[in-house]
Amino acid sequence: MKYYNLKDKTEVVDFKTATIKGQGKEKGLFFPEFIPQFDEDFIENLHQYPDEEIAFQCMKDFVEDEIPSDILKQIVSETINFEIPLKKIHEKIYSLELFHGPTLAFKDVGARFMSRCLSYFLKDEDKKVTVLVATSGDTGGAVANGFYKTENINVVILYPKNRVSEVQEKQLTALSENISALEVDGSFDDCQRLVKQAFSDEEINSKLFLTSANSINVARWLPQQIYYLLALKQWKKLEKENPVICVPSGNFGNICAGILAHFRRLPAEHFIAACNKNDVVPQYLKTQKLESKETVATLSNAMDVGNPSNFVRILELFKNQFEDLKSKISGYSINDEKTIQTIKEVYEKYNYLLEPHSAVAYNALQQYLSENPGKKGIILGTAHPVKFPDAVEKAIHITIDFPESLENLMKKEKKSTEKQADFAELKRFLLYKN
Ligand SMILES: *Cc1c(COP(=O)(O)O)cnc(C)c1O
């Protein structure tokens, strides 16, 4: 499979190069040259395939012989070596629980796949790579965990000071070794801007080999399709009609992977982009104008994104046909008050505990289902409630216990370096301290 740069279609690279480079010229995102179709038979009989085989079928056309089949099989098995259950909340809404991985967030899937591919591609090269990543919360932990102690790879994570939860902060600051966490006095957008600037800085790039681990990297973005297939596998045993799939969205990598799988024949009735007050895409769906905005801080902080990078990939999938896109995707913007109210209601009525991101999705799906009676759907549960205890406790006044795996982590010391949202400071750190 070849990948072209969405900003300059003459730049065409293979999977290895796309994985190592992260992004192309002019900060353009890579996009597959064609959309490989699943066999109809495979989709029809999904429930008969083991999860690992589904994951392999999902990824093989994007990797081809750049990684030998037996190694790719092992990589995808390790990528999904935790349970991803589809739980029924009530008659019409199910939750795909993507938070049983090592950092309790769906980002574990992409981070695990990418770190393993990158380490495969680097093993015979005399090259040290620096993975540079901005996080609004969960990316940092998943990437730190995925790359922890990986040879030839250093990880530098930028996160916005005071805007991530205690658990999230520990997950990205307590590991050290080859992981450095920079605590930036600014927003996620500031962090992302600094990272993008570093990628286009000549001096840095002449001295270091930088790559990204945000969902702009194809090796992090593409494997997210896997769990949409695993969701359908479970759904088919329970329901007849195709599901409406509702994805809590920030940078739009996750939902874009689901839509890509749909373009490859994965059955889905409709997609919903559930956003918090950062509503660039819901606004676009109303006005056809894509205008990035200042980020607003919300309870669902992993979705506090004012300039969703992956949306260009969705536009490309729909060949920029607004009406087609609008007939397949609806957008909702849910504020913090409704988020809290939703956590409370769902807990009291159905004894199911949501966290702020999945609550945004639940509320959006509920609205859509009330406007479209007769349909049923799935929300993507993107994080464990324990990662967002403040919001959850505010809603239902219970304290959530840390799972055992977290208790040890919480006892570890936070190790971070404070930084102004200033490029010169980041540059100095990358060149001399990393
Ligand atoms: C990252 C994240 C999101 C947003 O995912 P995108 O792919 O950026 O749209 C939603 N929920 C949680 C918990 C996250 O960590």
From TrEMBL:
SUPFAM superfamilies from the UniProt entry: Tryptophan synthase beta subunit-like PLP-dependent enzymes (SSF53686)
GO molecular function: pyridoxal phosphate binding; threonine synthase activity
Pathway: Amino-acid biosynthesis; L-threonine biosynthesis; L-threonine from L-aspartate: step 5/5
Pfam families registered for this protein in UniProt: PALP, Thr_synth_N
Keyword vocabulary terms for this entry: Amino-acid biosynthesis, Lyase, Pyridoxal phosphate, Threonine biosynthesis
Catalytic activity: O-phospho-L-homoserine + H2O = L-threonine + phosphate
Gene3D superfamilies in alphabetical order: 3.40.50.1100, Threonine synthase, N-terminal domain
N6-(pyridoxal phosphate)lysine, modified sites: K107
EC numbers on record: 4.2.3.1
Source superkingdom: Bacteria
Residue ranges constituting the Tryptophan synthase beta chain-like PALP domain according to the UniProt record: 92-375
Residue stretches making up the Threonine synthase N-terminal domain: 2-79
GO process terms (BP): threonine biosynthetic process
Cofactors (names): pyridoxal 5'-phosphate
Family: Belongs to the threonine synthase family.
NCBIfam families for this protein: thrC
Protein name: Threonine synthase
Organism of origin: Chryseobacterium taichungense
